[in-house]
Amino acid sequence: MKRWIKWMTGAAFVLGMGVAGAAEVLLGAGDVVKLSVYGSPDLSIETRVSESGHITFPLLGQVEVGGLSVAAAEKKIAGQLEKGGYIKRAQVNMLVTTLASQQVSVLGQVNRPGRYPVEGRRKVLDMLALAGGIHGDGGDMISLVRTRDGETTRETIDVVDMVRKGELDRDYEVAGGDIIFVERAPRAYVTGEVSRPGPFRLERGMTVQQAISAGGGLSPRGSDNGIKVTRRDPSGKPVTLDAQAGDAVQVDDVIVVRESWF
């Protein structure tokens, strides 16, 4: 599983390199920009886009730039300078120094959790690569929380299944403000006469025999007869069942290996 996660991270990085810069960045609240006007050094400023999407510019006062590309914002400011009679054929240059609005939070079981900029078109796999990939304790299931048109939704993505099948069209494009959360891998427990009793990572389709192997195998006194598993029924009540080596293990199962009588 760990080798697979490393491969998936590398694949995501390569894919991300291919799409970066494919779309224009739109200005938003918190972005910091430097502005200059050719031939008018007194109009050079550095300012932050307000929560309402405005900047304060000399001579013009409040100018709404939220949701505009850099080129569109330059054109708008130049047009207002010309319309106001301040400058003829104004040439405005804007440089984004901090892209705070276009960031995605990557949290949970990743190697470098934090906020990462969305540069061009990015998808979930791209952002996971930026965050250093999925941690060894990370699971296959990832949650994507995003707000579009005022509505917040949560998508669940099985990234390992998606990459294994080569169905990358199932990946989601992200935007500023989105949250990616990598869940912890499901666990079960093995106790009794095994070499390493305790919790273990529950892999897909894992059997009781494989769970015992994850616990280091039988101890010198352990027996593969009379194995029990305790799990919760649909009502949440714990029940103890006889288990065979080939039985499937479920999340939070407790497998008990008994001592051999011989």
TrEMBL record:
Gene Ontology biological process terms from the UniProt entry: monoatomic ion transport
Bilayer topology term: Multi-pass membrane protein
Pfam families: Poly_export (PF02563), SLBB (PF10531), SLBB_2 (PF22461)
Primary localization: membrane
UniProt keyword annotations, A-Z: Cell outer membrane, Ion transport, Lipoprotein, Membrane, Palmitate, Polysaccharide transport, Porin, Signal, Sugar transport, Transmembrane, Transmembrane beta strand, Transport
Recorded family membership: Belongs to the BexD/CtrA/VexA family.
Protein name: Polysaccharide export protein EpsE
